[in-house]
Amino acid sequence: MSKHIVILGGGIIGLATADACLKRGHRVTIVDRSPEKRDGCSFGNAGMIVPSHFVPLAAPGMVALGFKWMWNPESPFYIKPRLDFGLVSWGLKFMAAATHKHVDQASPVLRDLNLASRAIYDDLADSGEDFGLVKKGLLMLCKTQHGLDEEAAVAVKSRSLGVPAEVFDAAGTAKLDPTITMDVAGSVWFPKDCHLDPNRLISAYQRRILEGGGAFLWNTSFEGWKREGNKLVALKTSAGDIEGDEFVLCAGAWSDDLVKDLGLRIPMQAGKGYSLTLQNPVELPTLCSVFTEARVAITPINGALRVGGTMEISGKKEHIEPRRVQGILKALPKYFPRFKVTDFDGIKPWQGFRPCSPDGMPYLGRTKAASNFVVATGHSMMGISLGPVSGELAAQLVDHESPSHDLTMLSPDRYA
Fold first, then answer.
1. What are the residue ranges of helices labelled H in 127-260?
2. Residue 41's pLDDT is what?
């Protein structure tokens, strides 16, 4: 039976959810606070699909590393100290989750979701959608032998989970991608990883949704919920009340603020990231890569080079911190010596907010807060990577089907 599905949030998770619901014969309306021509978290990111990233952000060693990096204004991770109960509570939950047991439980879940999403991207590309999908793998580039040794240990874990990984020295790394000059000790190659053009992907999804009869309400602010008992009946917005049969929350870093009136607690911090896109670079790699020690992501997109990084927990102020951008750019010539920091002079940095849960796992599932409410948010740095599978799972939940993946660790009620 066809239902009206109201989706709050028009980023990659909301778009993939809408596409999946339309394929099931439902009517869909997407509500988003931003203008149609916007620049949210789904647009300026590195565009990576990463089965290799099966370790959640909350992992052993991250707390100590975070404290170390906090005092360096150019470091890849920063938490701005402030009197904020939500931040303190989130931080304590992060510390509690950063254990080997949590990683062991979370890794198979993230692996399966990433591989399933990759398969959906394959199907989309095979159907004729052109969003720049490149299936050549990802290089974890290591500047030092110590870094390579640590990454090689991750490769062992990866292979034990069924995700292929190969370790290369400097010479072997150069043979994998001879189009770029590198100064590294070696690398780990994850052949199942891919990359794409986020802008083309978002445009493709928007077109598919419009062609399928879906509706968008841009520049529309959330003002509250209307409910009857344990059921939501309408979303209150600046454009009026929008009635629906099922409601799906895909509002990214703003999600936690939108559900407090429902009595739902989904702890979230906005992890600000930056990127710069260099047109006509002096060299262009064919593979995407991550500088492991610097935590900087590199993606070739349509003949340009996108360089991105940092995880800045400092609230939702849309302010670009020049020192953090400099930290990203200073890393580039250390790994790719043909480049200079001055190559990026005059290029305006992009910034976006990643929605970060304290345990590094998305919120995906139904909730006790309302009988017709599905939550699909909190994907941190893996929104693009997990978008399609999250959309498919949300559509299954909308239809009250048993989800195709075990969502126990992703329950939106886990911090209730």
1. 145-160, 170-176, 198-211, 255-258
2. 55
Asked if residues 280 and 273 have their Cβ atoms less than 8 Å apart, the reply is no
Name the phi and psi angles at 76, rounded to 5: -80, -5
| C-alpha torsion angle, residues 201, 290, 141, 292 (rounded to 10) | -160
Contact 388, 25 (CB under 8 A): no
Taking the chain (416 residues) in runs of 10, the rounded mean pLDDT of each run is 95 97 98 76 84 90 73 76 85 93 96 98 96 97 97 96 98 97 98 96 96 96 96 97 98 95 95 94 98 96 95 83 92 98 95 94 97 97 96 98 97 96
- For 164, phi then psi, to 5°, come to -60, 145
Equal fold, 4-42+200-268+360-410 vs 51-194+269-356: no
pLDDT for res 37: 60
Sequence spans of domains, the chain: 4-42+200-268+360-410, 51-194+269-356
What is the secondary structure of 82-131 as a DSSP string? ---HHHHHHHHHHHHH-SHHHHHHHHHHHHHHHHHHHHHHHHHHHTT--S
Looking at domain 4-42+200-268+360-410, its CATH superfamily turns out to be FAD/NAD(P)-binding domain (3.50.50.60)
Rounded to whole angstroms, how far apart are CA atoms 60 and 354? 21
- Torsional sign, CA 154, 156, 162, 164: positive
Q: How far is CA 247 from the centre of its chain?
A: 22
Distance between start and end Cα atoms, the chain: 32
pLDDT on residue 313: 84
* DSSP 3-state percent helix, strand, coil across the chain (nearest 5): 35, 25, 40
> What is the C-alpha separation between 5 and 232, in angstroms, rounded?
12
DSSP symbol at 409: G
pLDDT at 64: 72
Number of neighbouring beta carbons within 10 Å of residue 317: 9
Query: CA-CA distance, 385 to 194, in Å (whole number)?
Result: 9
Q: Which are the contacts of 176, defined by CB distance < 8 A and separation ≥ 6?
A: 139, 168, 187, 189, 287
Rounded to the nearest angstrom, the gap between the alpha carbon of residue 76 and the centroid of all alpha carbons in its chain is 16
Architecture of domain 51-194+269-356 in CATH? 2-Layer Sandwich (3.30)
Task: Determine how many CB atoms are found less than 10 A away from the CB of residue 390.
Answer: 28
